[in-house]
Fold these 2 entries.
Entry 1:
Amino acid sequence: MLWNETDTTGWGRVHKAHGPVARPERASHLARLMQDNPAPAQGARRSYNDSALNDGGRAIDMTRIDKILHFDEASGVIEVEAGVRLGEILRLFGPRGWIPAVLPGTGFPTVGGAIAHDIHGKNHHVAGSFGQHVLSVTLIQPGGKRITASPTRNKTLFRATMGGIGQTGVIVSAKLQLAPTPGPNMRVISTRVEGFDEFLALLDASPHSYNVGWIDGTAKGASLGRGILEEAELADGDAPTAPTRGKPVPFDLPGLALSAPVVKLFNAAWWRKVPTEGKVQTMPIAAHLFPLDRLTDWNRLYGKRGFHQFQCVVPLAEAGVLREMLEQIARAGLASPLSVLKRMGPGRAGMLSFPSEGYTLAIDFPARVKAEALIDRLEAMAAEAGGRLYLGKDARASGETIKAMYPEWQAWAAEAAKADPEGVLITDLVRRLGLRDLA
Amino acid sequence: MTDTWIILGATSSMARAFARAVGERGNGVIVAGRDIDDLKALAGDLAARGAANATAMRFDARDAKSFEPILKAVALEAGNINVASFVGSMPNQDEIDTDPSLIDGVVVDNFTGPARFLAEIAPQLEARGGGSVVGVSSVAGDRGRIGNYVYGAAKAGFATYLSGLRNRLGRAGGHVVTVKPGFVDTSMTWGIEGMFLVAAPEKVAGDILKAVEKKKNVIYTPSFWWLIMTIIKLIPERVFKKLSI
């Protein structure tokens, strides 16, 4: 059957959509769909919010358009269809000395989704965003027109497509410059950090390529902002052992599983796991970068009602606002395990790209009224500090707030309108924020 | 010495997953089917994944003339020749009831087409004294059900054929694995109501490869389908004929 009448959700499972979804198995089927029944594309649906959803309308699931079209071992240039997952590229080519230049915190996202959200990783401060390593991208626009854009050809379209949340056409394939690696492993230095100011100082001074700070969002007072800093470099060594299959979370857990006392205990134990003198380990790249992939469907930990991930980036000079946010979060007692603090570089590839130079904080909250009110406050604080929210995550902000954070949004909307004059690629996210309402 | 795998019906997602599994182990792969553009792209994918070589060739179960070039191509290869047939088609039973002439095509696609190809390549396997054949039948072949008994009958015919071929090739050092998948997440089951316990094509491909390595004769994949089908086969016909499962 071509169309599967089905329910879909974003990763946070707060937003839901119902409608017919097609899942073409071949590029030719996709081309025909875009001629006859154009619809927005969805990849792994790892965006937390409604970015992949089209409630009441059609959608095209791209996960079976997943062929590697070409790989050049000498240059590390790879051409892949949009449904190829980033973890698959790492698995196949890591042992041969090449990995995706930018990898997020999970290996499941597709190349198409990575482009559409111009994703970033732990190495953003040195490598920039995903789109900065895209040599060219091929789109099919509604009606079936095929068009290729690169940093030198169809430049505006290229900048509107990197981070362009799928509105300039369905991404069919892309040519990527992979990054060389001396081996399939990472050498990871873990350090206990006692508080927020020390965290910033360590992040500022770190000479390493892959950095992430795990923050205990439940710690208050003198311990506010305590956590673990992980600094890593690609490393040689034996080939990684075959990745063990992920253990699924078999059902939606009751709310108790991530209640405040449980989270507090978990975070404290996590923090103490690293000895005071720190530790150094070598492990497969995926083991370090994708810590939660071993627990497939971990979003079910939050129960049926789902969860939100709040993520903002604020300019370097505004780090103080993050401390205020952490104070509010700790006081509310609503934080989930493992919040993330990171210093980002200026690298970004598109008009609606999230990254910009500064500090970014990401934190999960169960979808409850109290948490949502807190998120709204945090978002207002980010806006006031000249910060920005992430279109792959935010599920709460108003269109007005988002538009103020993305000054190029109108140029982007104009390019989207050129590619998709009838608006058939509009998703729930775009509709909610009114991002394509030019008037 | 590299072995060669011929994958018949290679455009399906189950076949694609299996082709990738054998390709990533460094085998040579011939991907055969009707959509040659898609197969060429698949051959490129397999080469990038580490297949010793990967070629796209035309194969149409309903056109025996398309068999010849494949038979000739592998005759030149050193090493063992292996064949995996994923060929099949499953029109709606209602459509068949309206137009019974569709039965002929279903039988060719699911049974006589691949059976004839296997019969034609069998002497090559016997001459080399080895090689494996994977024949994808279906749990639908275990019992005629109201919803798809023409498809089931063709798959049952193919399973019986594979049993005989196993007997024949076994004498020459070859081996035949009969595969009976349950519901697999392919285009055949996409959007069809009443699907449950649907398995990923990669899971099925992994099960098949394990069965080849362990020289299993008949496998259900995922394996719990053995239990389901054992129960279904035990239902007395006088009861079964009234059921619409």
Note: Chain A touches chain B at residues 1-6, 23, 25-28, 64, 67-71, 78, 92 (CB under 8 Å).
Entry 2:
Amino acid sequence: MVTEPRPAQGSDLLEIYDRALPQVYGYLVTRCGSAAVAEDLTSETFLAAVSAIQRGGVPDLTAAWLIGVARHKLADHWRRQGREERKLRLAGGGAPQTEDPWDARLDVAEARAVLASMGPHHRAALTLRYLDGLPVRDVAAHLDRTPQATEALLVRARHAFRRVYEGRASDG
Amino acid sequence: MADPLDALREPVIALAPRPEFTAELRRRIVAEFDPDPTLSAPEGATMPETTTITHTVTPYIAVHDAARAIEWYRDVFDAEIVDGPHVMDDGRIGSVDLRIGDSTFGMSDPYPEETWPSPQDLGGTATGFRVKVADAQATLERAVAAGARNHRPVAEQYGRVQATIFDPFGHRWTLEQA
């Protein structure tokens, strides 16, 4: 007979808290670039875990599971930020551009600075795709878009990234 | 062709948030679960199980940068916070209690103006800890990798197998093979 896995309880969350918290916070702060935002999102992540545990819906409570929750919270954060910025200006979407092949070796510190300067939609897409290494369909799921729309968003985001990156290089 | 943006890959690295944030979020989680019977705290306590120091004598040390020391003792000795950190108006940690194994000790940032200097202020220390560890060599290596000074390598002394380190804050720890 196979025993049902016991759903996680509150004590399980507190037991992994000290180990999991720096991982969740570390994941968030290296991606959102702000300690204050990372703290808010870390709180949201753990309180969401509390709710999920109370509903009995967490069969396998691990740091990796919490980071998955944190990734959704980060995507939500950029979505909110995107909505706020859209009120200020029309989103410059337009038709997807076709891409020139780009063969360059990126200076990672420079590239992270460029990423931090980008708007929330592009930043979200590039972070999930490249920093987290998610496949396009998973990026799409986090951003609530179709895979096709996500591909198009990534093309625009890469184009914008390259423009800023090369602009900075020629300024320097 | 390789995608240049693949260079951005960022593995998850653990970074501790501010100790006050860590303690506050833990309190919120405990409060959310209450009155979950698996977490029922002893009367008067704000956290389950661990807030009371039960031994008669408890060491209490002054540590330069207590916030960083909390992380260090966690990393090297698997210490757990059992109370605090209580942060004073001037930003210094006035008290935090840590537990290693079955033993608890307290610490704070130094208050030299109240005759409570740290080893850095003194240029040495007059006290030390003896801590039982499962593997003295492994703990020694972990401590040194985290910035401790290897004072005495693992050897037999007083009938015990032990090593001695000075942690990065100047406190002396003798690691006794259990």
Note: The interface with chain B takes residues 9-11, 13-14, 17-18, 21-23, 25-27, 29-31, 35, 38-39, 42-43, 46-47, 50, 54, 67, 101-106, 108, 111-112, 115, 126, 129-133, 158, 161 of chain A (CB under 8 Å).
